[in-house]
Amino acid sequence: MSRAMLPASYTRYKIRNPKSYAAHQEAIKHLPGGNTRSSIFSTPFPLTFTSGHKATLTSLDGDTYTDFLGEYSAGLFGHSNERISNAVSAAMAGGWNFGGISVHESAFAERVCDRFKEAGMEMDGNDETRKTITKSKILVFSNAYHGATLTFPITLVADADGGDDDGGGSKVVSGGTASAAATNLPHDFVIAPSLAAILFEPMQGAGGCRTATKEFARFLRQVADEHSALLIADEVMTSRLAPAGLCVGLFGITPDIMTLGKWVGGGMSFGAFGGRREIMELYLPADPGERKGKGRLSHAGTFNNNILTMVAGFEALGIYTKERVGVLNRLGDRLRKGIWTLLADRRIISKHLSQGGEAGEAYGIVEVDTFDRERQGKEAKALPRMFVSGHGSLINVRFTGFEAKVWQALFYHHMLDEHIYLAMRGYMALTIETTEDDVDRLIRCVEGFLDRTTQDCETEI
Question: Does the keyword Transferase belong to this entry (predicted)?
Fold first, then answer.
C-alpha cells in the first residue's frame, strides 16, 4: 500500500513545482545530479529556493516553507539574523582575503575557547594523534559520519575484512582505522596495543540522531585513559546541545580533542578543533633559526581565517548564549514528545515507552548495532515501524522495516504538501527563529500523516 501511494505524491509535487523542475533539468547539465552535495537532493527532484527570511524559505515556484532543516544544524540563526548580517557587511566594507592575520580571528578564537573551555578545548585530529603517541589505529563506530571522507555505514563495517564477527568485535575498515558496533562495545572488548585514538559522536547526526548512553560514553573515556589513547569527540553538530558541548553537558566527560563546525561559524563555512594544551602546542611554529622540534606539526587551509567567518562566528557565540541553548532544547523536547504521544496513542509504539528514557534512549528505545547479520535482523524487528529520536533541538523522525525508505519519502512529501521543509531522511534542526506555534503546527501535520497512513504503519512492539 505504501509503495502505491508514492507515485501520487510525486505527481502532486511535480504539478506544484514546475519552475523547480525546470531549474533542476538545467542544473544537471552542469552538476552531477544537479547539486553540489548529495544530502540536498530529493526525489523526484529537489526544490530550488530564491530567498530565506528568519525561519522561512521561498521557492522558485513562489511557495513559502517553514524551515525545520536549519541547514543540517549550520543554520542555527535562521536566514536573516540582523546582528550577523551587519557584522558581515561591515567586514566586507573593509576588504577580504588578506593572505595574513586580521584583527578578527583572535577575538573569535577567544570566544570559542571561553565557550568550550570545560570541554578541554575531522581528519586533522587523526593525523596529529598518530604523531603524538606514535600508534597506528583509530577506533570508529558503525553509522558514524565525520565528514564526507570519513563515513562508516554499518554495511561497510560489517563487510570489512579482519576482526571477529561476534556482534561486539572490531573490524579493520581501511588502513589504520578499526570499527566497532555503536553502543554495543562489550566490557571484554579486546583493545589492540596500537590504539592511538577513539573517534566518536556524542550523538550520531547522519546516523539517525542516535545519542550515546552515558555508560557507553564514560566507558570510552575509561578505555582511552587505560590505553594511553586520545578520546576525540566529534561535536560538529552536538556542540549546540549544551553550553560546552554534549560530552560535558550530558555525559560529564572531557575529551582530549573536540571538533567544532556548522553553527559556530554563524552560517558561514567553518571547522575547527581544539584540545589539551600539550596537544595543541605541537602546532606552535618553529623559529627559522632553530632546528625544527621532533613531532612539530603544521596546519594549513586557505580559508581558515576567512574574515566573513571570523566576524559571523564571533557574533554567533554572542547570540547563542547558555540560556538560549536551554530554551531551544526545550522547544525540541516539545516537538519530540508531541510526536511520540501521537505514535503511542495510535499504538505504533508501546504505551509504556512514552514516558521517556535516559540519555541515549529515544523515549525508552535503545538501538544496538551488531555486525552479525542474523542478529541484525532480530534487532531491526524490535524497533517500531515509526519513531522519533534525537536530543534537544536535533530531531529525527524515522521508519524501519523493508519499506522504510518508501515511508520516509511519503513523510517527506506530506510535510512539503503542508509547506514544512526538512531533510528527506526526516532530520530536523531547530533554529532560534523557530516558534512554539511552528512546532505545534508540525505536530498537527504529523497527526495528519498518521490519519492517512496509520493502518499501514501501525504495529506494536
Answer: yes
